[in-house]
Amino acid sequence: MARTNDTPNIPIVNFSAFVNGVKEEQERVARQIDDAFREVGFVYLKHHGIPKEKVEECFSWSKKFFALPMETKMLAPHPPSGAHHRGYSAPGLEKVTQHQYEKDEIARSREVPDYKESYESGNVNDEAQPNIWLPEDKLPGFRTFMESYFEDCATLIHRILDALSIALSVPPPGLSPTHSRSLFQLRLLHYPSIDAEQLKNEKRSRINAHSDFGTMTLLFQDDVGGLEVEDPEHPGNFSHAGPIEDAVLVNIGDLMMRWSNDRWRSTVHRVGLPPPKTVTIPGPGVNTEGHRNGEKVVPLENENGAVVPDRYSIPFFATADMDTVIEALPGTWGKDKPKKYEPVTAWGYVQMRMAMTYEE
């Protein structure tokens, strides 16, 4: 199990050993994922089973969608509230918050608006949260691909749930049957280019610090960067969690933290200014270290008028079935560790958090 360079506390696990391995290998991978979620709440999974070409194709479709005129994207509008979380959200409609329940608190959080747009889709036959698609002739092939990619992500979620069931000694059939996919959500996210100074001075936010509120999240990132994960032991300290080639970043959400009685962490994260990138200005000749004599390395973010480029990401959110009661699982509590949370249904908790996100 390796560690990342940018964020040393996020382990990297080879998931193919779980998908294709024998019982002993599956148990070893399950322990590695368990350790990662206990330490930091995040893990990078390499060789996760979704082909690289299909991930790249999803990013291509995302860029095509967000490049459409606003009036076209608004043919698949997200409803005004968070009760039906599907369709297109224009910049400023959604405001991510972290456990803010009062109208005054939510209003203050909206003083620094999220600068992003998104598109949400879910299970093909979801009656509770039906999808809101564009007319087919506006982006032919988009719906068909997204439905296929949704199934790929859902399959991966269930495999990870199998690993978590081993880690918690949940007897067969484990946690997988508690997730019917009715609350699964595939999200396309686009963060338009923005002046670096606006992010530095907190005049705008890409996504404010928050935890996810489902059971688990998959995240596919482009190479722009900007995702930051809070150090659970030192609140307020964030480290960059950049993309790793051919890996998906997986994190625990609030419901799984409650379900595991805080064994696993639902860690706060945000999207802000990417780590500094540099431009090289070459000079004549080559020195002994292979660099050109007289060259300069200039951090782009320190230049006046620097612009942070567009960023695209594709999260996939998993939540247990609507009527699933989330309370501490057997083995996660006892005489020395009482149950920390009151029981809550998955749907009730999600609706409460979504109401905050889309509160007017």
Element order: H for helix, E for strand: EEHHEHHEHEHEEHEEEEEHEEEEEEEH
Oligomer: single chain
CATH architecture: Sandwich
How many E strands? 19
Q: What distance lies between the first and last C-alpha atoms, to the nearest angstrom?
A: 45 Å
Order of strands, widest sheet: 1-2-3-12-9-17-6-5-4
Global shape = globular
Residue share in helix? 25-40%
What is the rounded Rg?
A: 21 Å
The top-level CATH class is Mainly Beta
Structural commentary:
With 360 residues, the chain is an alpha+beta fold. The chain has a single domain (2-274, 310-357), classed as B-lactam Antibiotic, Isopenicillin N Synthase, Chain (Jelly Rolls). It is 27% helix and 21% strand. It has nine helices and 19 strands. It has a nine-stranded mixed beta sheet. α2 crosses α6. The radius of gyration is 21 Å and the shape is globular.
Brief summary:
Helix content is 27%, strand content 21%. The protein is built from nine helices and 19 strands.
Structure characteristics:
DIOX_N; 360 residues; 9-stranded mixed beta sheet; Jelly Rolls; 4-stranded antiparallel beta sheet; single chain; oxidoreductase; 9 helices; IPNS-like_FE2OG_OXY; alpha+beta; 19 strands
